[in-house]
Design a protein that fits this description.
The chain contains 3 helices and no strands. By secondary structure, the protein is an all-alpha fold.
Length: 51
């Protein structure tokens, strides 16, 4: 599920912080499902972004 779809389904937010929290949770879920390696990234650059 993309970020745009999440925002559109919600409609409105009481404040900016609520929208940011929702986007954070969505990105967290998306990153857990990500299985494909990023193309053309060498090992050194990929190591910088690993958790």
């Amino acid at each position: 599920m993309g970020l745009r779809k999440i925002i559109k389904n919600r409609g409105s937010f009481p404040n900016d912080e609520a929208a940011i929290k929702l986007l954070y949770l969505a990105l967290n879920n998306i990153s857990k499902k990500w299985t494909m390696p990023i193309q053309d990234w060498d090992g050194e650059r990929a190591a910088e972004f690993k958790r």
